[in-house]
Amino acid sequence: MSVEGPAPTLESPGDEPPATVAGRLAGYVRGGGVITPVITALLAFLVGGLVVALTGKDPLATYKAIFDGTGLNWFFPWISSEDRTVASLNLQQTLILTAPLVLTGLAVAFAFRCGLFNIGGQGQYLVGTYAAVWTGSSFEGMPHVLHVLVCIFAACAAGAVWAGIAGLLKATTGTNEVISTIMLNWIAIWVGSWLFTLGGPLQTDEDKSVPVSPDIFASAKLPVFWGDPELQGLHVGFFIAIAALLVFWVVLNRTVTGYEVRAVGFNPDAAQASGISVGRNYVLAMSICGLLAGLAGAMDVLGWQFRIATNDIQISQIGFLGIAVALLGRNTAIGTLFSALLFGALLTGTSVRNLDPAVFQPELAIALTSIIQGLIVLLVSADILVIYLWRLRRRLPGRRKAVEAGA
Amino acid sequence: MSAATATEERATGLPDWLTLKRLGWAGVALGFLAFFVAVPPLLIRTPVVSVLLGLAAIGVGAWVVGRGERRLGWGAMVAGIVGIAGGIASTQTGTESLERVVVWSALFAAMLRYATPLVFAALGGLFSERSGVINIALEGMLLMGAFFAVLGADLTGSWFLGLLIGAASGGLLALVHAVFAVTLRADQIVSGTALNFIALGITSFMYLNRYGEQGTPQDLPAVPNVTLPLIDDIPFFGDIFGEVNLLIWIGLLMVIVTWVVVFRTPPGLRLRSAGENPLAAETAGLSVVKTRYAAVVLSGVLAATGGAYLSIGFVHSFSQNMTVGKGFIALAALIFGRWRPGGALAAALLFGFSSALAQRLPVFSTSAATLFQALPYVVTLIVVAGVVGRSIPPAALGRPLDRS
Questions:
Q1: Which helix (H) or strand (E) holds A271?
Q2: Which of A403, B81, B244, B348 has the smallest set of CB atoms within 10 Å of its CB?
């Protein structure tokens, strides 16, 4: 396929590729409803299955085992009551991971709608966790709800400031937000490693030989509403994430701010010409993204982690997964929910605890998750490829006629 | 910057030979001197000298900034502040630990080792970005090179074949990037991000599948060191350059080769025209698509060579995600070096030096050494923000060719 190949079949207004990422992805959204993300995910899983087959294991059995570990079989009415008990425990884990993924996904999606590519979700998420663990382990004896709110506020503020740096640099000096957010990610990773390392300023006082933060107080923990709090039941952060989805949709589609953000995303020059301050919207949009990612950090710390070890900081992928979540969910609220659920389920299903090593080694499955995640992002990047395939299918009879008429 | 042009006419009252640029460099040098006097071999045990020298550097910097030479002026002021801080910190520390940390020849030798993967990856990025394709997947290409060099060396029993296989794996990953970025006109940042995830997944998967918990074998064939008998006998340089890994020399050589190819040959001109004005290049009869393909694949081969050095030339093993952000530091070096080979080398050496220092800092404090790892990223953030001189990318960077 050459460069000119697909171009004639793409009858999008003006075949020139739009200047911004948001403009490009708007075309992707137009190109075929819910079908293309499903095709994208299926293709990625297909390739993942091939990788499994190459190691001599049965891909179908592996995917079945991963699926059983996700707890999504809880929704099947026919499973036995013992299976249902196990499934409910697994489903709680899946949903615990879905909540922060929704938020980091929104953090990327909101930036895309403003024409910005926020690769810095990971850094914003991390500074959120630092702020949450710091405030959560301070203020002993504060009333429960107040303490939780203080922690959430601190985490959101930290994330917003962290992302706001990139927005401010973009607005004032035109610094490419991709580069600045990548740098901010790594700064956040090393600052966090420093905060909780041996002799670090926020290391726990209990055992000075472990690089870990102090535990947060019980008054800062989010209440569990499904399952046993001792067994990591589902905390109310899930509802906060759902609420964030609604707020995201309302702000973007029903407020002046959202209108301006989208206008800047489609065409900054046109927005500027019609009196919208592009710079102000860059800072605002990035800060909102950081706020969402910081909130995700608060959910994890206050909901189930309760502390941060320096190892977790290096391994954590929640913010990076947000990129795949947003892209697969096409930067919409409902799409983000479903793709966050997909990745949350994938993480739970491939975890060491849930995947039977006899079927497939969990460590390998975790690497497989990374491959599938990458393939999904890769396929979404080639919006033209997917749109092309989709339109080819839909317009095949029409095209044939057009060719005949042309001849 | 408009200030620079406006002040060129302003009389500085200086003799002709003393240009603002030279004065700025002198300020930077003064700043470094402020730190240098307090550590071995000079080891002056009072902070007064450092503070005076540092203040002089700041003064010169401020004066030069006022006359319009902003980049060097700010550089001198930063150097002055760092020099004072370093000088005071050094005089507060015991002589013994200072002498353990600041062994200049060992520091420089370590700097070369840490800088080499960055040099290769940054040069790779240079080819790709000069042709107009953003390469954010340098990290993944380094990782591919690192793993497949180990795998190749292990399977064939030869470091040379391992190196080739490692380089080829990076080229293959880069080919995928080229297909998506050039032919399919994908968003280059998104596809680069994707390739980083995929490279991490593939290398982890294959590593765990083959080597599992034991890790890579102890007796991996390694890229040999080159001993230069003549240089080895020179006191200071001998310690640094006397016995150096083959790939370090090749890396330094590649900087010169890259400069010659990109700026002094017809293919280099074609490469740059594809990145600056692809439509004009196309009009002149040059295939932008082919040029970009070649540049992106070459970038993968180079970056993966850096990864191969990391695994079979430097640490002699592979572990999951062993590059931990080196690809992004290389990207930073490329931007910091203004998309030029010499600049990228200088930046890579600077970042390499900071890594070498970080490796020795735990003598003082583990936590400070950890925080020090963030330095390259902070420096890059300041540079891309345009506070200290602006880096301007190739004009058509990130834009797919549109012929319609």
A1: helix A268-273
A2: A403
8 Å CB contact between B57 and B30: yes
pLDDT at B391: 62
Identify the sign of the CA torsion B323, B325, B328, B332.
negative
For residues B132 and B277, the answer to whether their CB atoms sit within 8 Å is no
In tens, the pLDDT along B338-348 reads 889 998 999 99
Is B304:B169 a contact under the CB 8 Å cutoff? yes
A374:B325 CB<8 A: no
- Residue A145 in tokens: 């709800």
Q: Which residue of B has its CA nearest to A112?
A: B190
- Report the distance separating Cα A352 and Cα A56, nearest Å: 20
Answer for the pair A52, A144: CB distance below 8 angstroms, yes or no.
no
Residue range A351-385, pLDDT digits in tens = 888 888 888 888 888 888 899 999 988 888 776 56
Spell out the residues 6+ positions from residue A219 whose beta carbon is closer than 8 angstroms to its own.
A140, A141, A142, A143, A144, A147, A148
Q: Smallest Cβ distance to A191: which of B194, B374, B404? A: B374
Contact A219, A212 (CB under 8 A): no
Q: Please say whether the dihedral angle defined by the alpha carbons of residues A146, A150, A155 and A159, taken in this order, is positive or negative.
A: positive
* Contact at CB, A377 and B324, closer than 8 angstroms: no
Tokens of A297: 């950090």
How far is it, in rounded angstroms, from Cα A271 to Cα A283? 15
Distance CA A251, CA B321 (A): 39
Which residues in chain B (174-203) have CB-CB distances under 8 A to chain A?
A: 176, 180, 182-187, 189-191, 193-202
Task: Determine, for residues A378 and B198 on separate chains, whether the beta-carbon distance falls below 8 Å.
Answer: yes
pLDDT band at B69 (very low <50, low <70, confident <90, very high): confident
Query: Of A322, A178, A21, A125, nearest to B328 (Cα)?
Result: A178
Q: Is B386 on the interface with A (CB under 8 A)?
A: yes
Residue B292's nearest CA partner among B131, B77, B113 is B131
Cβ <8 Å between A377 and B209: no
For residue A326, give the nearest of A29, A120, A160, A112 by alpha carbon: A112
CB pairs under 8 A between A and B: 176
Minimal CA separation from B392 to chain A, in Å: 10
What number is the ipTM of this complex? Answer: 0.84
Burial (CB count within 10 angstroms: exposed 0-12, middle 13-18, buried 19+), residue B310: buried
What pLDDT is attached to residue A391? Answer: 60
Count of positions (residues) in chain B: 404
What is the least distance, in Å, from the CA of B198 to any CA of chain A? 5
pTM, to two decimals: 0.85
- Which chain A positions have a beta carbon within 8 Å of B381's beta carbon? 169, 180, 183-184, 187
Q: Which residues of chain B have a CB within 8 Å of the CB of A173?
A: 385-387, 390
Cβ-contact B289, B402 below 8 angstroms: no
What is the nearest CA distance from B207 to chain A, expressed in angstroms? 9
Sign of CA dihedral A223, A226, A227, A231: negative
**Nearest C-alpha in B relative to A3:** B183
**B304/B312 Cα distance (integer angstroms):** 12
Whether B195 and A378 lie within 8 Å, measured CB to CB: yes
Residue B398 pLDDT > 50: yes
Residue A377 is nearest to which of B193, B366, B384, comparing CB atoms? B193
Contact check, Cβ <8 Å, A381/B180: yes
Of A164-173, B61-70, B355-364, B382-391, give the lowest mean pLDDT range.
B382-391
What are the residue ranges in chain A where pLDDT is below 70? 1-33, 383-407
Task: Please confirm whether the linkage preceding A37 is cis (ω < 30° from 0).
Answer: no
What 3-state DSSP class applies to A22?
Answer: helix
